[in-house]
Amino acid sequence: MSGPMIGIIGGTGFGRIADLLAVQSVELETEYGWPSAAVVIGQIDQASVAFLARHGSPHRIAPHRVNYRANIAVLKALGVTEVIAINAVGGIADWAGPGAIALPTQLIDYTHGRLSSFSDVGDRAVEHIDFSEPFSEPLRQRLLAAAVSAGLAVHDGGVIAVTQGPRLETRAEVARLRRDGNDLVGMTSMTEAALAREAGLGYASIAVSANAAAGCGGSEIITMHEIEQTLEEAMQRVLRLVRECLRHHSPGIS
Ligand code: HPA
Questions:
Q1: Are 12 and 246 a contacting pair, CB within 8 Å?
Q2: Which residue in 11, 40, 202, 227 is a FRET match for 72, CA 20 to 30 A apart?
Q3: Who lines ligand 1 at CB under 6 A?
Q4: How far, in Å, are 60, 145, 243 from residue 63 at the CA level?
Q5: CA distance 186 to 220
Q6: By the 8 A CB rule, do 27 and 74 touch?
Q7: Ligand 1 atom with least separation from CA of 163
Q8: pLDDT at res. 123
Q9: ∠ at Cα 30 (206, 117), nearest 5°?
Q10: Separation of CA 122 and ligand 1 centre (Å)
Q11: pLDDT tens digits for 181-191?
């Protein structure tokens, strides 16, 4: 293996990577408890990768129940320095229809009651991390460059609302999210991005639109079937994007 190890957190529709040549599956309890699943360490092409299924393997942990602290802590403990997160989202903006892929630059947090800091353990000093730019711009730029070289349409930027879930939003809630300036709505990226920042890990999100958010012009009722079908196709493109990024656009990997 060569180069630094990159972490990949896969979300709904991306519970495993078929192309990951698994070398090791690591089950490690952290001081924050157990991560969602064993971390699969291996190689994609020549790159070292640590893959973690956010919702467990099989998919069973709802967004508000994920032990985000353990997930970030275990990746850090394994030597990961950067994390590419894959997040299924609903599309609010016109450009974010089902199947669209975006690399968001901003987020707004609407969650409540989540453990989203390492600071509240024991007598650890409270750290007020800078979060003006919640995503790693260098990593985002590498993903953008990878999209160009792979010929994939990817939206550069966007604001993602992070809701509590697991239910989807009402139309009125989405109308408010739109007024607030959000382009996308998901349930997981705030918690991970904040913890990654505290842990000193670069973190960027590949947001994949699974459906038009409630009242945004899609079907009257959003079904899991629709979400799963859209994601199945879109994740092929996400995998191409990740591979291209690992192959040509990672520091230290030739
Ligand atoms: N809202 C929030 N999270 C989501 C959605 C949605 O419409 N679709 C997929 N994840």
A1: no
A2: 227
A3: 88-90, 163, 168-169, 185-187, 210-211, 213, 227
A4: 10, 30, 26
A5: 19
A6: no
A7: 2
A8: 73
A9: 60
A10: 34
A11: 999 999 999 99
Q: What does pTM read for this prediction?
A: 0.95
From atom 9 of ligand 1, which residue's Cα is the shortest distance away? 89
User: From ligand 1's centre to the CA of 138, what distance in Å?
Assistant: 27
Q: How confident is the model at residue 251 (pLDDT cuts 50, 70, 90)?
A: low
**DSSP-derived 3-state class of residue 82:** strand
Amino acid at 159: V
Token reading at 105: 């630059």
Distances (CA, A) of 47 to 143, 183, 232, 238: 15, 32, 24, 17
Q: Bridge partners of 188?
A: none
Q: Across-strand partners of 89?
A: 209
The residue whose CA has the least distance to atom 7 of ligand 1 is 90
> Ligand 1 centroid to 31 CA: how many Å?
31
- Match 């099989």 to its residue by tokens: 58
Place of tokens 């669209």: 100
Which of these, 23, 26, 48, 24, lies nearest to 37 by C-alpha position?
26
Q: Contact 209/32 with Cβ under 8 angstroms?
A: no
In whole angstroms, give the CA distance from residue 22 to residue 235. 19
